[in-house]
Amino acid sequence: MKRRHMIHAGMAAIGAALATTAAAPAALLNVIASVGSRRSAQGFAYGPHERHRFDLYTPGEPVVNTPLVVFLHGGAWNRGRREDYRFVGEALAARGVIAMVADYRLHPEVRYPAFVADSALAVAHALRNALSWGADPDRVFVAGHSAGAYNAAMVALDERWLGAVGAQRERLAGWIGLAGPYDFLPIRTPEVQSAFGHPEVPVDSQPIHHASASVLPCLLAAGRTDERVDPERNTAGLARLLRSRGTRVVEHRYPRAGHETLVAAFAWPLRPLAPVLDDIVSFSAAARATSRHGAPRLRPRGMP
Question: Per CATH, which fold does 2-286 belong to?
Answer without folding.
Answer: Rossmann fold (3.40.50)
